[in-house]
């Protein structure tokens, strides 16, 4: 052994508004009651996870002009739940997805700085961007942002938020009662930002928070998204959890860092990963198959096919063969408010490929949807899963994983109880938190250290 | 004491930094260095809950505090900076059981969609104890923090020349509240069905587009967050003049007003009740609370001495939109009951120094009112609407 073992980072994604989440399971609890979030967060903290992760959606999804009703629908406000979770946990990082398109920097920076204060330095922001007028219908400005400008606005949004976070120095707050000096400098919080998307100035009204700035996550996969992450993110929430695709993503993104004067350790790659545990590998495989069937009902399979076909397929039998009509070309109109439709860039080719696959294996529509998607990342006994996760991290497919259980809120319990101890035994996962902040858990420097402004303590 | 027994009072406390007096942070009890920690707020709100208060409000703003009416200042001798009030309320919610949590929300620069789901979520994390206090801002410097519009400079909120600007801001706030409320109702209570047989998680016929189209914005809906436990968390607003009285009458469950005596209280209430009728809400419960700044001590001389000490530190006498009371908890109880006779249903007290005057309310005023049969002896409801005697409202979109 020449290379020291990497330490694994683990996080818990609250089960989402999509068909990964099996709401029909008898064990499935509420997706909205705070007790579910508290249970989930406490499990993650008991297992010494780095952080909890919350997704966001700002418009209910629609298909065929109607609200999509087959998956979990409804979620709480990200900031509000994270602030409440800060009260029932002591160390767990609190990562929230917040859209940069339908918000303004001053307000979002206040909210993250407040969350960081109220959690003692545990806030993280997954910066996402959207442009669609469909979501815009819920907001003052409507669909104001051209698609090609979404990253330029997101970049400027983040840069502006950083200027606000940095507008107070650590020692601006004096609060010397005897001398009657509350602020060291009357200009604390002063900022001026003039740019293409934001032209704002004034004074930020939240003093510098424990982490200086929240930890920044990025999730986009396009070349622009990767560049955005390389330039300024602390971690990437990626979709490449397999060994080979994970390694090539990891290499690609880490190689972009030098251009920005950053080191490979300055940006963590954390793919989303689902899992199914069993007492034996064989039992886990059986369970995983069963979970996949539950995740894809016949009705869900038809809806999924519509993402590619871009037409109403409700007349088709999910247990029958694939449609012989071709996908409708042009702009996607059937499914709205979901990212999946963008994954199929050439629907005609996908349809052709799927027909061939189905014919070769004698698959029905439902079989095809089950077999071509939704394969869990880690399936096996606790020992197998622990070993695989560790192997992937040591082989630089990832720096750790954001685990996505399929049951709310207890879907993480088995992993916490059975897999984490094995990783701890191998010496690749912490047995105790070593610091109070999320930056401590992730091994990230405080931004003032980088600027050389932080007093040594 | 009045000869005829009055209905029990409702009591709220308005929390703002270390207290409402600008020199309050200089007092030994003030903990100014902890203002930006969860523990500070948790302690204050636990104290309010110990006193069985209906709710706390939490002040907020989209810019630093200032000693000027509409402009920022560059003072270094007063508290500047605050945390987001909704997040403070959420952070404290799991640590409390009964007390209502009413953060301030500025309608002028925020998205009603975000505010609606934030307060709905506060209602979930507090299991039915959320409310909101809606506020407008005409400050040009706060508009510049957003850069989306400029606000014409006004001389004062009640200046006749400013009437159009102020009316617009309050009309926008009324639209904001209307959208927030419609979004809370955009899910019927039983919309989540989890019907395994048909694979449907929700009955989408029980979700509703709100299709609000107003002068300032349009919002389609439905909310992403299911209807909150209270159905409609209470909406509250502070009002000093006809235009805001109209907002209270049209859109609120609790209005805060600032009479300096019983006569003024009577006149304000008459105006609000008339506006309420004009808005077609005559039959609906609408609380009107008076705001009072309080300096309290069992020894009236000590209360006055503390006030004077604070005024000296501040360099000027502290005046406020609300009447400033200085005296003992028993004297305050007398005043509250006298004002109540004008038709007020409760009070929102603004502690001059949170560290002194909040415990004086919970440990002095409350027992005094209890002795007079004028305040609850235990929490008898587990939602804020319940504490305020407001029934859980029907959903406007549900078929009767």
Automatic annotation (TrEMBL), chain A:
What positions belong to coiled-coil segments? none
Detail which positions bind FMN. Answer: 97, 151, 222
Q: Which UniProt keywords apply?
A: Flavoprotein, FMN, Monooxygenase, Oxidoreductase
Entry-linked InterPro entries: Diverse_substr_monoxygenases, Luciferase-like_dom, Luciferase-like_sf, NTA_MOA
Give every Luciferase-like domain span: 23-395
> What's a Gene Ontology MF term here?
monooxygenase activity
Tell me the protein family, please. Answer: Belongs to the NtaA/SnaA/DszA monooxygenase family.
Mind telling me what this protein is named? Nitrilotriacetate monooxygenase component A
TrEMBL record, chain B:
| Positions with a binding annotation for FMN | 60, 104
Where in this chain does the record put each Luciferase-like domain?
33-310
Keywords in alphabetical order = Flavoprotein, FMN, Monooxygenase, Oxidoreductase
- UniProt superkingdom: Bacteria
Gene Ontology MF: a single term: monooxygenase activity
Matching InterPro entries, A to Z? Diverse_substr_monoxygenases, Luciferase-like_dom, Luciferase-like_sf, NTA_MOA
Enumerate the Pfam families for this protein: Bac_luciferase
**Entry-linked PANTHER family:** ALKANESULFONATE MONOOXYGENASE-RELATED, C2H2 FINGER DOMAIN TRANSCRIPTION FACTOR (EUROFUNG)-RELATED
Similarity comment: Belongs to the NtaA/SnaA/DszA monooxygenase family.
Q: What is this protein called?
A: FMNH2-utilizing oxygenase
